[in-house]
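Q: what sequence does this backbone want?
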């Protein structure tokens, strides 16, 4: 919330007093909930009377509840309305008023009233009105402060808005529409989609890449900041935070909330589907990950309902195996399994020709012969051939990919896979490959030269997998004098020393997230980490001495872990909390698809409550916590969850800083949910409703307490802004002396 320093002169005494006040701004959305209260009808009548008295022809723009509200409660305006404009209206009249889909027949001297209170939609509509036309919208109500309710004044924040981000529009008659839907973690350019975009550029297919996720992000933030004045909630009361696109937003991964997300984003989803149906692409391609399965499933089903011949092509993180991809997105026609660089081009070229290829390496499809085994696709071993990311899918990347308050960060991967790939609990055990240092730094420099800031993250599983490569990267950054702020994830490694971390710090690396995961010799050995506790201490000490923040991941509950391991881990971390700066994540061990535990459970003392083959067939992401246990010592879901609880509470009591994801994971475990419990829900039909079951977003603003205190004096100022003064001794007297309208505890005073 922004504050203002103002000097008020007491009208009676002439005494000057300096005050600090909250800046407020007018919200048409809050002003017009369209509930039909007497005060709201009176305000609509006042605005419409001014329109009628102007003597100019009136054009109403945009069908919807606001337009109906005007026609219902101010019918005297109807004789002055010459037409209604709406791009999607197909009838020639509405309530006996002529209709048009554009402004080509706009009468001279016409006044265009934009019938929309929500800010993002209103701004989009206003951009479509021809230059020179007189425009009025519900925002005009702020010029009638005596009639505006107090709740219409909301906190003002410093933001990047408005700026002209793209509308949701797709090119017609495409071979492929590559569409990314919310929510990718953070506001960085989606790496996986950028690489698929680059692969499609090497093909002959006519395609368009469109990131709808970032568009919906900006719409969400405008709604939060300009309409509500507080963080939104879903219809069931679940909150969406200001950082709702951040990695820790649980609403995206909790399938119980998927129907409510579909409800909240209903208007945006309707628009996306409508535009796809207008564009008629042959192939709708989407990147699937756990955070966007709810919306990609829904969009695909609705497109198929209207255009059954549209082919649905999926890939992405959820498709790291054919089984996990099918569980995440059962409605696919074709699925790229694993990396798409060398696979997707030939596939879409064939689809564009009308072919339906079967049993392609790296591709699963509903057309495959089931008796033939799946063959993995080729993956590039020389990543320099693939190169860096392409940023030309969006006209102004730097303006679009930033947060509501202007922050930027860019993810640029150096490597793929993990050089170790032997940790027993991990599913991401893919072959390690790296780009050459010089070409990698070339890309960093090119991004800086584009005007983007120097905040980078390496979106790698194992950024430091080859110490010699990282060493050369850092030397090249220093040699070129690039000013960067960098972070990445690395393993503990005996080849790292103080001079190595010192060079990394000189290159701009500010923080490293260590996948240490274990902090006793027993758990290090059981997790097959490949190093000793002495190496852990040395890495953290050297990294800290070099001035780099050490973030840490921990995994508890792995088979073979004992009560003493938890106690000793807490003691170890507490003893070294001067060099272990923050615990970024604590996970309770999961039995996930493609992990060592998944392939060789008995070897690690893992057994099941039920038939293993049946369980593996039903739960394709991994086994729910309640269905497996380990021996030596015995550990089931209750014990694993208790180990995590002890770890979190013990570290907190020892004063070790814990990151937000630790708290989120802890709360999930406290409620009896692990990652696989969320995953098991994704196959429940009630959690991924068909079109007929969809509930819509409420049309009125949901009630929510304002950010500011009601124990404030809200003074109506000029210029569409107001100020909220704290109730300090003598303030009421001074405010009253100004002779201006002001609100106090819900009542307007003059």
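A:
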């Amino acid at each position: 919330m922004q504050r203002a320093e103002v000097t008020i002169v007491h009208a009676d005494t002439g005494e000057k007093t300096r005050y600090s006040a909250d800046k407020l701004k007018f919200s048409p959305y809050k002003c017009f909930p369209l509930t039909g209260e007497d005060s709201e009808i009176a305000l609509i009548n006042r605005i419409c009377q001014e329109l009628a008295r102007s003597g100019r022809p009136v054009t109403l723009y945009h069908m919807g509840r606001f337009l109906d509200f005007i026609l219902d409660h101010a019918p005297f305006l109807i004789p002055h309305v010459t037409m209604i404009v709406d791009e999607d209206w197909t009838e020639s009249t509405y309530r006996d008023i002529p209709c048009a889909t554009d402004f080509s027949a706009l009468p001279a001297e016409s006044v265009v009233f934009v019938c929309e209170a929500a800010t993002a939609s209103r701004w989009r509509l206003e951009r479509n009105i021809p230059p020179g036309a007189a425009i009025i919208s519900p925002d005009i109500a702020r010029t009638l402060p005596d009639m505006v309710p107090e709740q219409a004044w909301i906190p003002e924040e410093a933001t990047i808005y408005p700026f002209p981000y793209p509308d949701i529009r797709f090119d017609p008659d495409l071979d492929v529409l590559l569409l990314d839907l919310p929510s990718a973690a953070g506001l960085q350019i989606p790496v996986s989609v950028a690489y698929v975009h680059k692969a499609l550029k090497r093909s002959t297919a006519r395609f368009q890449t469109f990131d709808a996720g970032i568009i919906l992000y900006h719409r969400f933030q405008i709604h939060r900041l300009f309409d509500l004045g507080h963080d939104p909630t879903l219809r069931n009361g679940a909150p969406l935070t200001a950082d709702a696109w951040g990695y820790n937003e649980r609403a995206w991964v909790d399938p119980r909330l998927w129907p409510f997300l579909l409800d909240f984003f209903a208007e945006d989803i309707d628009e996306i589907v409508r535009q796809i149906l207008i564009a008629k692409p042959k192939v709708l391609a989407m990147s699937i990950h756990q955070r966007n399965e709810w919306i990609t499933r829904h969009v695909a089903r609705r497109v198929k309902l209207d255009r059954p011949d549209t082919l649905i092509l999926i890939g992405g993180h959820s498709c790291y195996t054919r089984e996990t991809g099918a569980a995440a997105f059962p409605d696919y026609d074709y699925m790229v399994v694993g990396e798409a660089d060398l696979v997707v081009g030939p596939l879409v070229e064939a689809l564009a020709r009308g072919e339906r290829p079967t049993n392609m390496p790296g591709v699963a499809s509903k057309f495959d012969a089931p008796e033939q085994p799946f063959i993995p696709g080729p993956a590039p071993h020389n990543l320099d051939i693939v190169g860096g990311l392409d940023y030309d899918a969006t006209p102004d990347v730097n303006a679009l990919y930033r947060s509501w308050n202007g922050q930027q960060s860019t993810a640029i991967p150096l490597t793929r896979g993990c050089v170790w790939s032997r940790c027993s609990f991990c599913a991401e055990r893919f072959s390690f490959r790296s780009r050459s240092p010089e070409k990698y730094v070339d890309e960093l420099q090119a991004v800086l030269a584009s005007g983007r800031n120097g905040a980078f993250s390496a979106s790698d599983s194992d950024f430091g997998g080859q110490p010699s490569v990282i060493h050369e990267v850092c030397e090249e950054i220093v040699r070129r004098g690039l000013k960067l702020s960098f972070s990445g994830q690395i393993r503990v490694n005996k080849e790292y020393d103080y001079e190595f971390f010192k060079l990394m710090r000189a290159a701009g690396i500010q923080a490293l997230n260590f996948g240490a995961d274990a902090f006793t010799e027993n758990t290090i050995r059981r997790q097959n980490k490949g190093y000793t506790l002495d190496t852990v201490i040395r890495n953290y000490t050297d990294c800290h001495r070099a001035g780099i923040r050490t973030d840490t991941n921990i995994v508890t509950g792995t088979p073979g872990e004992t009560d003493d391991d938890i106690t000793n881990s807490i003691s170890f971390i507490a003893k070294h909390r001067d060099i272990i700066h923050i615990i970024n994540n604590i996970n309770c061990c999961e039995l996930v698809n493609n992990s060592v535990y998944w392939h060789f459970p008995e070897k690690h003392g893992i057994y099941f409550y039920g038939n293993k083959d049946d369980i593996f067939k039903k739960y394709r992401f991994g086994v729910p916590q309640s269905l497996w246990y380990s021996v030596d010592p015995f550990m089931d879901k209750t014990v694993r969850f208790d180990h995590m609880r002890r770890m979190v509470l013990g570290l907190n009591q020892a004063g070790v800083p814990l990151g937000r994801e630790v708290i989120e994971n802890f709360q999930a475990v406290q409620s009896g949910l692990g990652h696989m419990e969320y995953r098991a829900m994704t196959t429940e039909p009630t959690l991924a409703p068909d079109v007929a079951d969809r509930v819509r977003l409420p049309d009125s603003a949901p009630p929510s307490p304002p950010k500011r205190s009601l124990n404030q004096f809200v003074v109506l100022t000029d210029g569409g802004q107001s100020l909220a003064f704290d109730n300090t001794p003598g303030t009421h007297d001074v405010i009253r002396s100004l002779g201006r309208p002001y609100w106090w505890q819900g009542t307007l005073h003059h």
